[in-house]
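User: Could you check the structure of this?
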Amino acid sequence: MNIYANVDPINGSDVRTWCSGSDTVRNRSSRAVLVCLALLCVLLLTVVIVLCVHIKTKSTNYTEERDELLTRNTQLTKERDGLSSMLKPKLVVFTDGWIYYKSSLYFISSEKKNWTESRRYCTERGADLIIINNREEQGFVKKISANVIVWTGLTDRDVENTWKWVDGSTPNSGFRLWASGEPNSGNYGRMDEDCAVNHEPGLADYPCNRVFQWICEDAI
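Assistant: Sure, the predicted structure tokens are below.
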């Protein structure tokens, strides 16, 4: 009986106080979890917003860069076309009938003479009968002569079938200069066809005493 008498009795108010304290701890823990979740959601939302803004900014920058490159490409294309136009050979026709083209002066006659007289006309003016060096110049000759027959500076008067220009050079074999079947002076016994004319199909050999128009050339 003395032993039990020394034990403090447990009253109801102490039990309620302990239970109430436990509920308070649980409530505080729950609020802390909710706060953490809320902060995490805010952080995630912030990250998403920042990423969206960053992606949009980069997309805008790429679009601007693309537009800038397209504009630059268009500008370069115009500059290239303008430069090509500037570099493109231009015809300049002077009042005395001479034509400037690619660093040379050309003159096509309106009258007709034989080969020797035609060449004399050119040399008296510091020029000579035309020398056709390439396909482009050949096309130019056809253009200014309107495909009429004109004397050129090609002849084999010195050595039969050895054709040379008036400056002593031989014809360029890199393009088709002669018309089909030409020169043919040796084919039919016509050994006097020693001078070359130019007409629509190309060059052809003719007797030098025939009369045609001619083209002078003066290299500048």
